[in-house]
Design goal:
- By secondary structure, this protein is of the alpha/beta class.
- It folds into two domains: 39-68 and 312-451, Aspartate Aminotransferase, domain 1; 77-309, 3-Layer(aba) Sandwich (Aspartate Aminotransferase, domain 2), CATH 3.40.640.10.
- The chain is 38% helix and 14% strand.
- Pyridoxal-5'-phosphate binds next to helix 5.
């Protein structure tokens, strides 16, 4: 139990006027208002209707290339019906924790189906993928343990590392040499857990699992793979990167989320019976939160069945993915080392990434820019991601619009594009078509990356 801090002297002597004003930062915060004033604010765009590959915003139809609905299942009528059926049977919510009154038969069914699908002994549902990472990392590690964490891991992992008692050791993105270097320096008798995204959510590249697994074995480390962007996408029947590489038996913990290819929300971890039995009695964000709503659970169960019964969806997703990788490259865009439907379009300058995304929206394409700390400083991107349900017509139109805007904004001649990552102010130019931009700083919603959070965590 955490001890309460003693006040240095009786509270009565604390003059109220001296108290730090907690809301000062709120009053002074103007980043979002500045961006809005200049017409570049890309966040919280309101969707009035969704058809999956198309959405309606402000009464206008846009091609959606900013979603993780990889298999187009979020709008599948069979899943919507399964969600309605579950609601009719169990109600709108479970109104309690799994531990107490919140376990319904659909939860158990889904856990069993997931474990069977992934070839694991057991699975445990969490209310979000974020909670799954946080809950598992906090429950499984102790103060003398070490978590070895890829620098480009998702924010939920970084957050989990901050909540967990173990020490965080970041290693260079996808580098087994860096990982080995770190492992070498960890005290022999300490516990070690290596954690990585299966497919990295910004760069779209795949974890180089086989050598990582070898290193883990050599140094007695536990392997934990976050398959958020790989389930339903990579591996036989979409079973994820651990199956793609044939290392399922060497990875002790596989985590996943339903907020991507399952088209819903919620998350899970999977592993041995004893691991799951322990986590379900120890993870605070499993115990002290309400369980997944019946609609979500019923819908995800149906999505899992469809995913297995209709492999043509995954084939279509990859056909579209290959087309877009080639299409963007042939226009001249740099798409990094992506190996997935996540295609990061390098812009370089943060201001131009915002301008680019705004012009896309005006031309009928919904995509979101990602800036530091979501990506490396000076390597701003427009993050695009593709679905099995995009038509050739959608994709050709997207490529034409990207080419047109790149010409219009001079993207390929911009020094921030030709020499990305140079550590300088990436807002040091004007955007004349909007009346001249000075500094526009808006933090990315997904501040998941190798940025301030991670450094804060490291210096803990
Ligand atoms: C790699 C990764 N892990 C975990 C999560 C969190 O998942 P959820 O949306 O279910 O909280 C995300 C979501 O963006 C993710 O990209």
């Amino acid at each position: 139990m955490k001890a309460f801090t003693r006040l240095p002297f009786p509270a009565i002597f604390h003059p109220v006027a001296m108290a730090r004003d907690l809301f000062k930062k709120c009053r002074e915060y103007s980043d979002s208002a500045d961006a809005r004033a200049q017409g570049f604010y890309p966040y919280f765009r309101c969707i009035e209707q969704s058809y999956g590959n198309h959405v309606v915003c402000g009464g206008e139809e846009k091609i959606m290339i900013g979603s993780n609905n990889y298999l187009g299942l979020a709008q599948d009528p069979r899943i919507v019906e399964a969600a309605c059926e579950a609601t009719r049977k169990f109600g709108a919510g479970c109104t309690g924790s799994r531990l107490l009154n919140g376990t319904i038969s659909l939860h158990n069914e889904l856990e069993e189906a997931l474990a069977a699908f992934l070839g694991r002994e057991s699975a445990l549902l969490f209310s979000t993928g974020f909670f799954a990472n946080q809950g598992a990392l906090a429950a499984l590690t102790e103060a003398d343990d070490f978590i070895l964490c890829d620098r480009e891991n998702h924010a939920s992992i970084i957050e989990g590392c901050q909540v967990a008692p173990a020490k965080l050791v970041p290693y260079r993105h996808n580098s087994v040499d860096a990982l080995r270097n770190r492992l070498k320096r960890i005290p022999e008798d300490s516990g070690r857990l290596i954690i990585m995204d299966g497919v990295f959510s910004m760069s779209g590249d795949m974890a180089d699992l086989p050598p990582m697994v070898e290193a883990a074995k050599e140094y007695g480390a536990i392997m934990y793979v976050d398959e958020a962007h790989s389930l339903g996408v990579v591996g036989p029947q979409g079973r994820g990167v651990v199956h793609h590489f044939g290392v399922n038996d060497d990875v002790e913990i596989v985590m996943g989320t339903f907020s991507k290819s399952f088209g819903s929300m919620g998350g899970f971890i999977s592993g041995s019976n004893e691991l799951i039995e322990f986590v379900k009695h120890k993870a605070r964000c499993f115990i002290f939160t309400a369980s997944l709503a019946p609609a979500v659970t019923g819908g995800v169960l149906k999505a899992l069945q469809i995913m297995q019964a209709e492999p043509e969806r995954i084939e279509m997703l990859w056909k579209n993915t290959r087309k877009m990788h080639e299409g963007f490259k042939s226009i001249g865009f740099k798409i990094g080392s992506t190996q997935s439907p996540i295609v990061p379009i390098l812009i370089g300058s943060e201001a131009k990434a915002f301008a680019f995304a705004q012009r896309l929206f005006e031309e009928g394409v919904f995509a979101i820019p990602a800036i530091y700390p979501a990506v490396r400083y000076g390597e701003a991107i427009v993050r695009t991601s593709f679905m099995s349900t995009h038509t050739d017509e959608d994709l050709d139109k997207v490529l034409d619009i990207f080419a047109k805007i790149a010409r219009e904004l001079g993207t390929f001649d911009d020094p921030a594009y030709t020499e990305p990552g140079r550590r300088r102010n990436v807002f040091d130019f004007a955007l004349p078509q909007r009346g001249g931009a000075e500094e526009v700083r808006v933090d990315s919603g997904d501040s998941s990356r190798n940025g301030s959070e991670l450094h804060a965590a490291v210096s803990r």
